[in-house]
Amino acid sequence: MTKHVKIALSGSRDIPFNQLVLSQANVRRVKVGVSIDSLATDIARRGLLQSLTVRAQRDAEGNETGVFEVPAGGRRFRALEKLVKQRRMAKTEPVPCIVRDDDQISAEEDSLAENVHREALHPLDQFRAMQELVTQGTDIETIAATFMVTPAVVKQRLRLASVSPKLHDVYAEDGMTLEQLMAFSVSEDHERQEQVWDMLQSSYNQQPYMIRAKLTEQSVRATDMRVRFVGLDAYVAAGGYVLRDLFEDDQGGWLQDVVLLDRLVDEKLKAEGARIGEEGWKWVAVAVDFPYDYDDDMRVIDGDQPEMPEADEARLAALREEAEALEEEWSGAVDVPDEIDARVNAIDEEISAIVSRPLVYQPTEMARAGVFVSIDSDGSLYVERGYVRPEDESVEEPVTTGEEQDGTVIADHERHADDIGPAIVSVGGAPGTEEPGEEDEQDDLLRPLPDRLVTELTTHRTLALRNAVALHPQVAFAAVLHALALDTFYHYLSGTSCVEISVRGGSLGTHAPGLNDSASARAIDERHESWAERLPDQPQDLWEALIALSADDQAALFAHCASFGVNAVWEPANRYNEGRVSARTVSGRIKHSHVLGRAADLDMVAAGWTATVDNYLGRVTKVRILSAVAEAKGAEVSARIAGLKKPDMAKEAESLLAGTGWLAEPLREPAIEPVEEPAAIDAEPAVASEAEPAHDSSDSEEHFAIAAE
């Protein structure tokens, strides 16, 4: 039988600190982990939790010198050394040490073993330990100060500790990542957490964002327009709970009580509807959002722009003057201070409030019209006034009510706003109407089909129609041209198409002054008037008119209509990319505009643009003016006007740049990056070159011609 040799552990003893020195055998060279300062602070608070490993220093004859080297525990030694230098610990303070005296194992091996065999605390144990400290009565700030972290980090750890114990076990066994566990903390419902985890086991997408989406799909984001409308503070004051994500930017969190939120929205919308109804409207319809065709068959009455009070005009002029001054001062700056940016935004909001005033309507018109009240995407109230339902339109022979005033019978359509009670406010999008009386029983065959059934049947037909159109390219071209022409020439009439394609290029008049006088605008107007004279007055006759056009005319009209959809305007995206347009959309728009410009042979010089004081030179800094002249005429010419004041410099630069073809940077077409041509392949070309068209030009008539059958 083999007799096992009992091991003997190294002895421990207290050694005064001034007899300890750091050993060159310590393998730790790179600083990682907790800093020496933090470790010194922790030792000062709780003492030394782990002894130092030392070896006796020997002289050349092998005798002990009374000094001990520290090969393992160098960071602890340095922390103690810092405490001595700070006079927080005596230099003769005894330090617990394990004294090693082993000729078979080197000091370097001891140092390496201590660091390699160390196992870091599992994050889950750290979460649970912090939770236990809180249970024992330690506050979050104390825990944060003790372990050298921020209170936010402690809150994150505590939130992770509140995740379902079942998911903790999965994480402990490396069944999920820390990022996934963090995602589960957005919900406090353990049952729901476990349900989502089980569901994701059969899903390819188990990313943290998917976990958050599943856990919050029954909640409402704080950025939702309904929340912005009623206000997050009002929701919380009413007893609502907001769930926050401590690990990601949650943009305000998720509102858990959707029923409460909807009630607050409904109450505020009704109150706003009643307030607007006091203006004298016949009805007011309120809803969070209305369906696409909510105003079909309704006429919009005309209103007059109210006169602006002198005080508002003076204030508007002052705001615009201040905005121009700020623009002049900061237009060339790389970094604009936050207070300047905030002031510019405040000026824009105040100007918008002054100029955005409701139109004034005639009381007799208001007495038969109504208002739609909803919520805009930014959470503000969206009011659309002056809609007249078909049944409220006046007729040639008014039906009398039987009521008289001074012997005169008043017709319904002549009733003044003062003669009508308060507006009927309806919720959900349907304008209020009087309750119908009881109708006689109708035969089942005469009853209309249920709305849901009609929707399903027409959905099937729509799908089949799509397929049929796809098989007939000429008909497809005709349908698109018909829709574009309706949208371009009959915008205010009741012409409609089942092809939901429209031209939405945006209004350009709000972005730059003087557009009407440009050569491009005159050419477009002339072409538009020419087509308007050739097309019928009524949209119902448009289809037959398009069929009668030649292929070349159809193509020309198609190009004219499609051009109104072009929008290459750069516009600033707001801070959160909400309410207007995102920065990504604007960037993509500009990039594609260069592609389209090259394809259409766009030439801004030929289009008539030239730098003037009004359109460029008077609105940029002196540095940019000089740079423009230097590009067009040379540095010597630019230097000759460098000493002028800005107004004189701008005027002189205008005359110098005239006829040079110089363009401001936003008007230039970027250079095309050269693409390395692939190696030549000895084979027939798959696509005809420009010199050899793939089809004869006579095919154009067949391609564009609209079938008349």
Give the helix tally: 26
- Strand tally is 15
Radius of gyration: 39 Å
Question: Low-confidence spans: pLDDT under 50, at least 5 residues?
Answer: 396-420, 432-447, 575-579, 679-709
> What is the spatial order of strands in the main beta sheet?
1-5-3-4-2
Q: Span between N and C termini?
A: 107 Å
What is the approximate shape?
Answer: elongated
- Oligomeric status: single chain
Q: Summarize the biggest pleated sheet.
A: 5 strands, mixed
Helix-residue proportion = 40-55%
Q: Structural class from helices and strands?
A: alpha/beta
- Assess the beta-strand content as a share of residues: 5-15%
* Mean pLDDT score: 75
